[in-house]
Give the backbone structure.
Amino acid sequence: MQFRNLAKQYNKYRSEIDEAVGKVMEKAAFIMGENVSELEGSLSKYVGVKYCDTCANGTDALQLALMAWGVGPNDVVFVPDFTFFSSGEVVSAVGAIPVFVDIEKDTFNISPESLENAIELVLNKTEYIPKVIVTVDLFGLPADYKEVRAIANKYGLYILEDSAQGFGGTLNSKKACSFGDIATTSFFPAKPLGCYGDGGAIFTDNEEWHNAIKSLRIHGKGQDKYDNVRIGMNSRLDTIQAAILDVKLKHFDDELMACNANAAIYDALIKNPHVTIPTIPEGYISSWAQYTVLFDENERREEAMQLLKNEGIPSMIYYKKPMHLQKAFSPLRVNTECPVTEYVSQRCLSLPMGPFITEEDIESVCRVLNSID
Ligand SMILES: *Cc1c(COP(=O)(O)O)cnc(C)c1O
């Protein structure tokens, strides 16, 4: 069994994708070809924001956003403790200070209470300046934007929505990538909307930031690539990847529906009092980047992984190590407590998922899970 069956996906769209890639090869416009701006138009329309700028990957997308805001030394960026490394890496990369914030036990997303405590701590106990809240739409579920936006307004902070896993999710019918002042996503192959290599995108309604990002992604260009008005990056989406994404975006809503149907099958078949299925609060739809369950004890998770492995079923621990324990961030300049992240990272397990997993496969996974006592 595959953790996410990308080969099956390619087989289904093969003729369309091969044709789209073939056209790029014939035109030989490999860098910033027509497909790139076409895709940016389709993506901004899909999400419902004014501007979309693609770039080389989801990590650069986050960094470009921070650069467009001029975030740097002495600025604090609040980041969930339970996320992929990039969400905090980019903060240190621009010289700013990541402060890690605990999560909610049911949604795995940033805890508004822990966030406000961390902001107060920085304001009262340090000389640093709070600037940005990174919200991560973890495993496909948008964060609690009602609460987080109220906190952002109260303290005058920007929200940077890291929706690398969230693209396609919704909250009250509003799409992920439309909640942040700037939002980003990743087209890494295994993400909800993946290409066949690396890729990323940045979304905003703000024209000034959009213009800054367009410049920053091409060496801080002014009039053209050889007129450089700021220090930027080389971070563009390949035309070939844009052509592939053009095709995949057309099928994306069908894939989302299939993922939600598959999640419902998991929900119905998991019947083990030691295993908690994912919580999707009222008004939310997940894009199901991951289907992640929570065991009541670490030992049961270890047993489950071993039994699954014996059956040839892959499973993954996202994420084993809380951000505040990553060596790369030590010594931390601001220490916070993140007990929920520590609890969850010991007990979470992500199961095979995606639009192309079969009902039989889900049944096999659940049979193993239900056998653990
Ligand atoms: C994958 C991911 C990223 C980084 O995306 P890349 O395209 O791999 O650089 C950032 N944040 C989160 C939460 C992710 O899952």
User: Anything to note?
Assistant: The chain is about 40% helix and 15% strand. The chain has a mean pLDDT of 98. The two ends are 24 Å apart (CA to CA). The pocket of pyridoxal-5'-phosphate is lined by residues 57-59, 83-84, 86-87, 136, 162, 164-165, 186, 188, 198, 200 (CB under 6 Å).
